[in-house]
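Convert to structure. Protein one:
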Amino acid sequence: MAAIIAIGVTVVTATIQWTAIWYEWIIIGIGAALIYGAQRRIKVSGGTNWLKLRRGWVRTYELTRVTAHSTPAGIELRFTDRDGRRLSVISDEIQRDRYMWDLVYNGIMHSVIAGGAETNNLLHRAFQVPRPKPD
């Protein structure tokens, strides 16, 4: 971000002399941090039977596949619903809102137990999702 801002300032001023002024770099650093922070926020929304992240969404009660994967950012949940829609989200982003997590967790539980959704071991260990009983 800082590099993009610096290039932009150079193009706008049509000179590179501004780089010798120390406080210009502080302003660029603050601007880059603000832009990064605004982009970093993830907008997660959910309803009684759906979860939306940015432009993607899934039906939480119609999941055919729910897996958890360990990443440097935390545990990533990957969802696939019966219509083939896919969504991946870091679990902490959902768990920050207790009500949202309750809705998503209930959908996961229903999809796994009643719908037979495909899962992996980390999902069962990390989120205490019971395994469906064999038929």
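Protein two, convert as well:
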Amino acid sequence: MELVLPRPDDFHLHLRDGAAMADVLAASARQFARAVVMPNLKPPVRTTAEALAYRDRILAALPKGSDFRPLMTLYLTESMTPDEIARAKDSGAVIGVKLYPAGATTNADAGVTDLARVRPVLEAMQRHEIPLLIHGEITDPTVDVFDREAVFVDGVLDPLRRDFPALRVVLEHVTTRHAVQYVQSAAQNLAATITPQHLLYNRNALFAGGLRPHYYCLPLLKLESDRRALVDAATGTDARFFLGTDSAPHARHAKEAACGCAGIYSAPAALELYAEVFETAGALDRLADFASRRGANFYGLPHNKGTVRLVQEAWKVPASCAFGGEKVVPLRAGEILAWRLDG
């Protein structure tokens, strides 16, 4: 059996920088025509000039002959100005601005502590039609870590959307039934990306036979009922749910540590993992919409030319991959997958 898809896009990707980026970039470029590249480097990508320079580094590191196109983002800070949004729009290269609540995830220390401090920037984004991409978790330490997405949706996202009704918003890597239902009930200018790990696993995976650091990501894996809601959304007909891997590589020693990093590296087998989900749900005929059309439509991008081919053929995910002189462990390392990307 085979499955031919229009060339897909990844609307949420971490590529890192330098030698580490050079090692992981090819895995995404092989599978996707375009990707929305996250800006949470050290230091973060805060200006259009920095985004253009990062784009140039990505393009220089691509394998020969690759036409992969990085879609750049800016890291929203409380010092950003509306003029920067105008520059981003004029560049034609910046596709969105990323909101990290301060301390919510990897390299989020420079994020936003109070949305009131970025209102002029949000107004400029609404005016220039630049989407706001949100890591949707509250960081209040009194809120249970498994409830942080739901509390964010009700207490932060909903008021934000009432204040800026024309602002296009992407709620990144949704993980809960509550968030899915919120997006489904909202206007068409709200969308959401869904990762392979949140479609495949519930939070039991973190503790199967012991503590499993390579299943630790933020937002965390949630309940089985949440996972099923995500599968229903991804394989359903609502065009606001689309592919975003949130592939986020960390060196093995940084994951297998006393205080391990959050992030799952799914890029080497991303499409194969999504195909597994859609096949199990009896919805392989809808994978093309989820992977190749919906995200492009939301962002106002043309559909990619060409196709990719998935075949039902067993192969083993490598136990580890190169990562800037270190090793990174991919999702499903050492396991056999039933689908393989051909070529």
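The first helix runs from residue 18 to 31. The chain is about 35% helix and 20% strand.
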